[in-house]
Amino acid sequence: MYITPVIISQTQFINGKIGISKSLTLLFHLKIDIGPSWHNTLVFCWKINGGVLFKRLMETWDFDVICVGAGGAGVTAALSAAKAGARVAILSKEPIGYGDTRISKGVMAYAGLSQGDSPEEFYRDLLEGGEHLNDGELTKTISRETVLAVLTVEGFGHIFRRDEEGRISGKVLSPAGGHRFPRGLSSPSEGVSIGNALRAAITRAGIALFEETMTVKLYSEGGRIHGALALRLLSGDAVFFRAPSVVLATGGPAGSITLTPIACKAPQAMDLAWPTRQGLSL
Ligand SMILES: Cc1cc2nc3c(=O)[nH]c(=O)nc-3n(C[C@H](O)[C@H](O)[C@H](O)COP(=O)(O)OP(=O)(O)OC[C@H]3O[C@@H](n4cnc5c(N)ncnc54)[C@H](O)[C@@H]3O)c2cc1C
């Protein structure tokens, strides 16, 4: 049996300064070894709110797959898992479909439509843009699947720019972003429309949605992450999620490095930090 205390206090930026709320949550993760699975876990929660102490067994949920993050990556992963028959939950500290996805320009690369262009040419551009440090297989997959990615997002309900015949053609592609061929397929309503489509798609799929729910700690065993401790931001309550598969899709480090107002509060590079902190490989 072991106990892991976790202290959560809610912080927020007020007029550029960090404010700490009066609510303080102390969590004790109690593991009782009565079987091989770490599912024999009880989590108790002591919460001090406005000077009053509450204690109770924490709300706990079991799923096959948990997706942490509900931008383009998390929603796509959750929908794929649900399509394969898994019981899926998606957690996001913001509303579903927010994150950088919603504030983006909504431009996606579409390779192979301009004269002389092909997925192989796109692969070359990606390698050069990445100073040949890219993961080879991942880069090949990205360059091969641009059309599939665009069709997937359109399948959620978003519409990319069309020519006068209502088609995606070379006429609507722009040569932005260091590409040697025009590949930039823009969105008339930018990322907001993609975010709305993600939200609609996931609602239709019957996936358990936990919005305004921030993951604060992950639990691993045998080199895999199996659980997430999260804080409901509106109530301050802690929730415990257990699943054999946890997908981390909390956004990249791009926006968080500079903390500029344009970078929304979503990305924290936690996808990289969390597993590394626990000695897990990326
Ligand atoms: C201003 C701007 C313009 C851009 N324009 C383009 C463009 O035109 N074309 C392009 O290809 N790319 C563009 N990008 C980059 C692109 O938007 C991102 O690469 C992409 O949206 C990342 O998607 P994601 O799902 O990985 O992350 P995000 O969309 O950032 O989603 C992260 C999710 O994780 C959640 N989250 C984070 N931490 C936690 C936590 N602890 N617990 C629970 N949930 C958490 C967030 O709430 C959110 O739901 C742009 C980025 C910015 C900032």
Could you characterize the architecture of this molecule?
- The protein starts with a strand and ends in a 5-residue tail after the last helix.
- It has a domain at 107-186.
- A four-stranded antiparallel beta sheet has the order 1-2-3-4, with no helix packed on it. Strands 5-14-13-12 form a four-stranded mixed beta sheet, with no helix packed on it. Strands 11-7-6-15 form a four-stranded parallel beta sheet, covered by helices on one side.
- With 282 residues, the protein is an alpha/beta fold.
- Mean pLDDT is 81; it is low at 12-16, 33-38 and 255-263.
- It is built from eight helices and 15 strands.
- The protein has helices at 72-83, 100-103, 119-129, 136-144, 146-156, 190-204, 254-258, 270-277; strands spanning 2-14, 17-31, 41-49, 52-57, 59-62, 65-68, 88-91, 108-109, 173-174, 184-185, 208-210, 213-221, 224-232, 238-242, 245-248.
- The chain is 27% helix and 32% strand.
- Strand 12 and strand 13 (224-232) form a beta hairpin.
- The longest helix has 15 residues, at 190-204.
- Bound molecules: flavin-adenine dinucleotide.
- Residues 68-74, 91-94, 98-101, 103-108, 214-215, 249-252, 255, 262-263, 266-268, 270 line the site of flavin-adenine dinucleotide (FAD).
